[in-house]
Amino acid sequence: MPKHYRPPGKKKEGNAAKYMTRTKAVKYLQVSLQDFRRLCVLKGVFPREPKKKFEGNHKTYYHVKDIMFLAHEPLLEKFREMRAHGHKVNKALAKKNKERAERLKAARPTYKLDRLVRERYPSFIDALRDLDDCLSMVHLFATLPAVEREKIEVSRIHNCRRLSHEWQAYISRTHSLRKVFIAVKGIYYQAEVQGQKITWLTPHALQQVLTDEVDFNVMLTFLEFYETLLAFVNFRLYHSINVKYPPILDPQLEALAEDLYALFRYFSASSRAQVLENQDLSPSQPENADLGSVGTEGDESDLRLAQLQLQLPTNTPGALMQLVEKAGVEDTDDDETRECKSLFKNLKFFLSREVQRESLLFIIPAFGGVVSWEGGGAPFKETDEGITHQIVDRPSQGHMFLSREYVQPQWVFDCVNARILLPTDIYAVGRVPPPHLSPFVDNEAEGYVPEYAEKIKRLQAAARKELMPMPGLDIEDIEDPQNILVAGVISRTEANEAAEEQRKISMLQNQYHDELNMEVQGVPYSASGVHRTMQIPVEDTESKKETLPDSELPVNEEIMMSNKKRKLYKAMKMGEDKKKNANKLLEKRKKMAEAKKSA
Amino acid sequence: MGKAAKSSRKGKKAWRANIPTDDIDEYIEKSTKDALTGGSLTSLPSDSLFYVDKSTDISVKKKIEKHREKVLHCESTLQKNPFVVSVPSSILNKSKKKRKVPKIVVESKDDSKDEKDNVSGMVDLWEAKDEDNVKPTKKPKPSIIPAVEIEAPGCSFNPSFEAHQDALASAVAEEMQKIYKNELGPQPVPLTVSSEVVDEESLYILPDHDTEDDAMDEENPENSDTAADRFSKTKRVTRVELNRRIRRRERQKVESEAKKIEKLSKEIDSLPDIIEEIAKDDEEKQKKHLRRAVAKEERRKLGPPRLGRNKFEPAPSQVLLSEEITGSLRKLKGCCTLTRDRFKSLEKRGLIVPGTKRKRK
């Protein structure tokens, strides 16, 4: 009996009309709860919280419109069909009619999610915007063990692995990786694709534990959708750089589990094929013409053979170099991409046996470097003369080549985040490297800058001004007079820049105040003219600035603001105060720690 | 049939008997057999040998269908008369036509796609730029929490000292909060209560002080009634008394009016104070509102609204202990419960309803 009696003919009103409990929704749609959950996940319909929970606080509510949206879904019919099919199979099995059961099992109704992807993401940009969760999930499942109990199939894990490698290969190829952060949880990556910042999390190379808090039915449903989505996104991205999408990989490399490298090779091969085809247009070469015709024919096996033949000559060690150079031909990149591309240019890396390969194989080519590793299918051996950096993660290195530098893997990550080549000696073998700072923290906004971040900043400024520190000197012996001089120059230039900026800002601010004042006084804008404000000398503005407390807006302006803005402003200030307090606490702690250390 | 004649035959008959008639006999035998069975099967085409049994396939016309065939009078009147030209509607028709045309196109496209490839992901889904068929439905985002939340800098595998201390402190605070909640919270209701066994006899006997109270209540109203009667007898009012009363009333009236005027003038004098007070009140209200709005925003950032029976519980943050920091990636004791983390993230964004721990079957 509801609280308020409603006569039977009367319509419902308010929240009771707008929302529906889950039980009611399931009854309305006439599906099992399991199917309902799956449908919700696939269609992107999620529970909501009504203002008034008319059937109690312990129930789950859905919007009525959402449920109607589900009711019109063709997938619903498909689910019913599948259920009926399951009944048929069961019946056949119960009647010991094995033959029929087998036949039925072979003809199980299937469904595709293509339409749903299109429906949920009407444009490609929408899909890119929502790719974070998708990528994290796919990368996670790529490392999971296949567990029968949880219905995690081997084929799906392989599919996830393939999709994640394809994505990484694209990012690496287009040099769109921006930030990397190794946390305890996993490795965070941030890339910029078509102006969208995409962040994803990959697990460490560890055996993942499946806890019983996790409902794998739900996870697998999400994964099902995400797999489809990522396949479409990859297809689109590959075609945007003129590569055929389902990539054909070298089976030998695939067998060695070097999918990523195989993909790089595939890229280089396809770009070479393009060049060949382009040449084919002007001078008629019989061989190339043949190749072209094969490509257009689309005969699968022939195409595959041709592709692999193209990849054959790339077995030579210089293949990756070629790849990198080819990629440099494109001139549509923005500044940041160019910067990223040239970070590890002309550097050759070698990964030792103990180093975790996956992430480094992805990152180093993404920043223009060439990389090899110890193991089958590697492009070049450890004894290669051209190697400039060897990445080592062990307490001591026995045999050392003098021609190369031995660094810990953290060096690569820190270089990538700082966008400069950091000095290698603090990352040398056996030393405890400097802290790995998060690139996702905006130090200026936070107001607290860690020590090492300051050092990196100085180095960046130095690199920008082409004032590289003297060879043989590193940042540690900053007490050296020469270094201090350099630092002084840098700091002075920095200070100059900062002052310039501040002056500009104060000027603009002043102008704004004056205009406001004039408005208050009722002076028409056009009459006063802009010239007067422009003519205000710099000294004047500075003196004014001193009188004004910089953190607070003048009172009359606060009054001028609309109510909403004023509230927002106040909320902002509350947040700022909080941050300031936190910073103070941090600094206090640091002082305490230092005092403790010295004591 | 093929038997030799037994009786003696002379002349022609004997001559005839010498002619072999086996082949003829055979033929006749065969033909008769064929005639009896209905012809040899080898020469016949297979079409005439087998036929598709359609006797059971023919759908029985049900009563309902028969009924359907009948056209009701009301329906017949509604049917379109070919001789009457319909008046074209100006707006409705246009919109309908426009809507219908792209739909048909889409369907045909879908069919062709299905035939072409059965593997999803091999088509450019966003290639076709026809935005008509896909309505961009603006859905409210279930939450403002990002899908991938980036951990604090202190959770790095090789954090700087201060950041690490910060992260560690927050993790410790979380744990301590849980402990304090357990300690300071209300005691759980005990499952069993220790007490003496109640006798069966005493179980049915109620304590009798209730009846006494009732008796007391009954007595009281009688007393009050008698008192009222006594006071209801009043003295007679004399003329003098009446006059006095009238005068007093008039005086009071005048006085109260004077007081009113005085009060009003006082209030007018204190108007700035009142305005100030109102402003103060308003300000306080606004502050309260602001505080609430900020708190609400913060709560939205922390977790989902209550969506079901269970409350969302965030996963503990992953921080290395001070002695676990080695600075080496190889020796890193990383988090191995990332599935749980992703699951919690789904819960946190309100995409799924937080549930209890599942029981293993």
What does this structure look like?
The complex is a heterodimer of chains A (599) and B (361). Among the domains of chain A are: 14-72, Orthogonal Bundle (Multidrug-efflux Transporter Regulator, Chain: A, Domain 2); 114-246, no CATH class; 461-556, no CATH class; 561-599. Chain A has 27 helices and nine strands. Chain A has helices spanning 14-18, 22-29, 33-43, 64-71, 74-94, 98-106, 114-120, 124-129, 131-143, 154-174, 216-240, 251-255, 259-281, 286-297, 300-311, 319-329, 335-341, 357-366, 410-418, 443-446, 451-464, 481-521, 525-528, 531-535, 538-547, 555-560, 563-598; strands at residues 19-21, 61-63, 177-182, 187-193, 196-202, 348-351, 370-373, 389-391, 405-407. In chain A, strand 3 (177-182) and strand 4 (187-193) form a beta hairpin. Residues 280-300, 312-330, 467-489 and 523-552 of chain A have low confidence and may be disordered. Chain B is mostly helical. Helix content of chain B is 53%, strand content 0%. Chain B is built from twelve helices and no strands. Chain B has helices at residues 12-17, 22-37, 46-49, 63-69, 73-78, 92-116, 161-184, 200-204, 209-232, 239-269, 271-302, 338-348. Classes of the chains: A alpha/beta (599), B mainly alpha (361). At the A-B interface, helix 7, helix 9, strand 5, helix 11 and helix 27 of A face helix 7, helix 11 and helix 12 of B.
